[in-house]
Amino acid sequence: MHVTQVHPSGARMRWLELPGTEPARVYVHGLGAMSAPYFTRVACHPLLAGHRSLLVDLLGFGLSDRPADFGYTLGEHADALARMMEAAGVTGARLIGHSMGGSIAVVLASRHPALVSGLVLVDACLDPFPPEPGHPGGSGIAAYAEEEFLRYGRQEIGERVGPHWWSTMRLADPRALHRSAVGLARGGTPTVRELLLRLEVPRALLYPAQDGPPAGDGDLRAAGVRLVPIPGSGHNITLDNPEAFARAASELPGP
Fold first, then answer.
1. Torsion of CA 141, 213, 97, 149, to 10 degrees
2. What confidence tens digit (pLDDT) does each residue in 92-131 have?
3. End-to-end CA gap in the chain
4. Crossing angle between the packed helical segments 174-186 and 74-87, to the nearest 10 degrees
5. Is 208 helix (H, G, I), strand (E, B) or coil?
6. I need a surface site. Which of 29, 55, 131, 243 has the fewest CB within 10 A?
7. What's the pTM?
8. Could you tell me which of 82, 115, 77 has the C-alpha nearest to residue 192?
9. How many Cβ atoms sit within 10 Å of the Cβ of residue 112?
10. What integer pLDDT is reported at residue 142 of this predicted model?
11. Does domain 2-250 have CATH number 3.30.70.260?
């Protein structure tokens, strides 16, 4: 277990690390998740093993601290993750981000380019989305006011998401979970998609084949983003088809 302070309050981020060669691979989980359950199997896959691998828990989630005075926007998450990477001596890393973690990875790459040599985005959120009452995911969480979510919304969401997601979501700080969902729904200016289109590092966007190509696929391809459909998979690609994920991630140009 590794730990470093990333916030003036003294809040610390924690990560698990697998030794190997540089450049490192930094794995970033999605909303309501933590990195070890989602990434350990693929980080150890023969196609990806051998590189230094950091499985990071974002502030508010998993093993990391839960500061109450942190905004949990995409930008704040990205800057905290950048501070963690700098403390770990990581530069020129390949960021592998699932869902919200992919959004954070794009923002980090835009703000801290020296830290990133490539992006593997796993069904990442590229665009703002409206809150949707009753939805079991991020849009449903964002539909609550913060105090409503703390009083009863977290319990309602827990009844909707099912046992797998709830197994990690129940460990998240409720305020961090809500603020992160609101930040993800709002996106930023520029949007995650606009930032992704401007980046020059190798980029791959993996998505479930059953969902069809992502919105704006022509613009993404024209900007050099490699789009990879993953068969036999839902949103949790690393769990549903780890073999196809490892193959696609290993084929991104660069070290």
1. 0
2. 999 999 999 999 999 999 999 999 999 999 999 999 999 9
3. 26
4. 110
5. strand
6. 243
7. 0.96
8. 77
9. 17
10. 97
11. no
Phi, psi of 202 (to 5 degrees): -55, 135
Q: Which amino acid is at 206?
A: L
Determine the residue type at 143.
Answer: A
Helix axes 154-161, 174-186, angle to 10 degrees: 80
Single-letter code of the amino acid located at 18: L
Residues in the chain: 255
- What's the half-sphere exposure (Cβ side, CA atoms, 13 Å) at 58? 34
Q: Are 110 and 130 in contact (CB under 8 A)?
A: no
Q: Which of 184, 152, 134, 145 is nearest to 32 (CA)?
A: 184
Q: Please, which contacts does 240-248 make with residues 24 or more away whose CB atoms are closer than 8 Å?
A: 240/208, 242/41, 242/42, 242/45, 243/45, 245/42, 245/122, 245/206, 246/42, 246/45, 246/46, 246/47, 246/48, 247/47, 248/120, 248/204, 248/206
Q: Which residues contact 7 (CB under 8 A, 6 or more apart)?
A: 59, 65, 67, 70, 80
For 219-235, what is each residue's pLDDT tens digit?
999 999 999 999 999 99
- Cα dihedral 129, 134, 137, 139 in deg (nearest 10): 20
**The token pair that represents 214 in the structure block:** 């992502």
Q: Which two tokens stand for residue 48?
A: 């990806």
